[in-house]
Amino acid sequence: MAVAYDQRPPTSIDQTSSELAEKIRDMDYVVLVGRNNTGKSFLLRALAANWGENSSYLGPQRYNNFNTLNAYSYQANRKRERYNQYLNRFQNEQQNFDNSPINLQTAIAQLTDVKREFLFEIMKELLGTDMKILDTVQNNSMSQKYISCDGHNLSFTSSGFRLMATIVTCLLDDDYDSYLIDEPELGISPEAQGLLADILFDRQRRKKYFPHIKTIVFATHSTVFLDRNVISNNFKVTKNGNEIKLHQVKTQQDFNKVHFFLLGNRFETLYLPSLIILVEGKTDHEFIERVFSLKFPSVRASIIHANSDNRIKEVLNVAKGLLGDLQRSPYRDRIFVVLDSTHTPSLPAQLQSMGVPNLSIVVWSKNGIEYFYPPSIMDKIYGLGGDIRIESDQISRNGLTYRKNELALKVAGDLTADTVMHPEFQEKLIDLFKPLIA
Q: How confident is the model at residue 244 (pLDDT cuts 50, 70, 90)?
């Protein structure tokens, strides 16, 4: 049967997720992440509808421009009226609404004098702009008021400034104890996002500016607003058909996956490689780098030659200095170490203690990458049959001998994207990477 063009989809939240969503009401900070069209915005609006008039919803379209401030007239039932309007719209509209039920012009006027001073103080910290309320006619306090930003009307500031001012004004309104904000990062520089997140995570400043807030919920595509202190405050939203599911982050590994997802499932956006592979020798580096560039041409990997297994720890320490605690980093499952069968006995355990998972430590069954070059290329170079023999820098087979570097260059030169790898190389290395870069 054909569906009417204006018929709302029967979007629902599965039972387990509904029970989980009920718990969000008792959390002080919640972050919802997920792909576009997975139901984050619907879930946010549903929570606002369910929580009642003490909750304040702020959608993506949250700014109406204005030149002057209106005088504030107290309305005893404004919370109830605003909630009823919101609820009616949520339940009856025939298309999703992105507009916010907040008008910045009115919202600033409704703040107390102390709260307005907080607004100006916070905006100065976030964006470095001096805000003041001035008379439109100088020396006439009875004239209309306007907001001056570094000497110019607020209406002439950037969209990002006005969007940030709307968020901060909304959060300062102590008529509400819960705030649900859709995509707080829209139009706002990463630096300003970070400063806002710092204020919200700082217990002293949150107590100073926002003591009335019980719960803040952000639906976001920005890593900046993730809760890194209490990882269970982060949730991933997915959708199967018309059913929305909510998945609470429970482990550091879950959090790392969410963090990596918000980076676009690639570190290249940060000018960083998607994978870091530490190898012992120069020939390991030559071969693995060439294989990777052919097998995964669209993925940036950093193959690091450590010279010896003793220096691998040193190189890893440098990486930790750049990336922080590997256990809490989205890089945790993307740093690999490749070792020969003969290595310092305690090295794997030491690497694990430094944050490298055991599954990311590859140990060859034989001592030398040469044993794992593609069989077809080795047959082409040495002829069919025979086993290779490695003596110091010499690689021999069927009466032919090449130095390690010379052989590595020959093998790398014959590699193509279709070359069949040695079974152990394929299983332990190539197959290890595939799930991460699919």
A: very high
